[in-house]
Amino acid sequence: MERMNIRYIDELNAFDAWLETNEISTAAVALWYALMQIANKTGWKRTFNATNGILSVKTGGLSVPALHRARAALQSAGRVTFRTRKGKQATEYTIIPFSSHVAYRNVKLTDQVTDQVTDQATDQVTDQATDQRAVHIPRLEKTRLDDDEDDRVREENREVLSRVVVYYQNNIHPIANEAEKDRLLELVDAFGVEWVLQAIKQAGLNHASTIRYVEVMLNNWQTSGSAHPWKEGKQNGKHAGTGNHKANPKHSEPDAVDWSQFDDTYKPRA
Q: For the chain, which terminus, N or C, has the lower number of CB atoms within 10 Å?
């Protein structure tokens, strides 16, 4: 397993300085920070996986289309590379560090060896990189990252997914177990927040009581070829459409969900 030897604070400072001469969207900025957080938690693996659902949470609720635009912008700017995979597999991301001398190390997948290599390699490579670094990385006297603000944003991100769960429980039935909750969040990752909310709404109106009904409805909508199938034809999961092409719910999802159209206080039937 190949890992990078870089200093988190150096990369943050360098990115901040880079933004002064390079213009990218706020969504792309948020995504870069989110990817750095994930890379840091993996122990700076050179390549790592990240689902759209996790990235949406970490970026303040960016929709899947917005995430796709942001990652394309970061790749064009030379800050990351990514590789999409078949089916519902998470996308692979690679951070392109600012440091001009970045050493890589191979780590065996055992805790004991990992700890030993991490301690030895980090000390050695950090000293070497400090002496050999050819490009000066500007440092900020005070980072603009505020811990309290980060906590607030993370709480707001979690609220987006928690509201989907509450809406499901209020309209279908209380979550029975972790497997059902995980399946619901997988549907959000696959189809986007708005599609799942609309499917839950229609399932409730049709007196459905299983997550399987919601899933079947989403799949039927996707084959309808419509960007907003709940607005067309019958509201029973069998919408009008030729079936000759598939709609892409991720591309049709708006950047912000209008929560006012969803009744979170609807009570399930007895």
A: C
